[in-house]
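Query protein
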Amino acid sequence: MDNESTLLTGQRLSKQFKGLLAVSGVDIEIAEGEIVGLIGPNGAGKSTTFNLLSGFLKPTAGRLTIRGVDMSGAVPEQVSKQGLVRTFQHGSYLPSMTVHDNVLIGCLGGIRSGRVKTADRRRNIDDAIGLFGLAGHETDIARNLPHGLQRLLSMAIAFAARPALICFDEPLTGLNQTEVAGTLDVYRQLTSTHRMSILLVEHNMRAVMSICDRIYVLHHGEIIFTGTPDTVKTSDVVLKAYLGEAHDI
């Protein structure tokens, strides 16, 4: 991968919890404008790896670099300021606030927020609300939204920060087929129009295979395969790791 286009690099990342080695020697790279998938059977270490990359866990060993800056052991706020924003499996919004105000908070948390004019900030909010299909819900309280719209709100908040890299943690859970298709179209716009990169941790294998440029496969805390969707689908190593799992690869 071209070093000039590399946005994030994880080198030999490991995490040990007392006697348990949850992640061992993970190497991962994400380039500008790329959609990268991180998949694996249940208990493979996806959440731990995700937390290491976003600063919610400090690695026991290894090095994390974002935009050429060593972020090993950095806290989430420092990682965010470097241009990486993440969502959470169970929602990334403030339930008692309106859709508009939630997205505003995401916008204010952006790495360039202090230099963004008020008019531009309003435009960013409108763009996020429109892009994720939330127009007409601006004054709705987040907790009262249907589940699908709550998922989309979490993504809109992350987008409003205008990061270089968005890490989506199980974003498609609970979405119907139409919502999934629409969300994947939005992801394509994020990379093509806004030049953002995406790291996608997701159990919807059909969606992962249709949207990702490259995929990392985790098993027992180690990367066992890296490649394009087509090579992942036909890998004996990957298929063996998924035996017994209810996934259609």
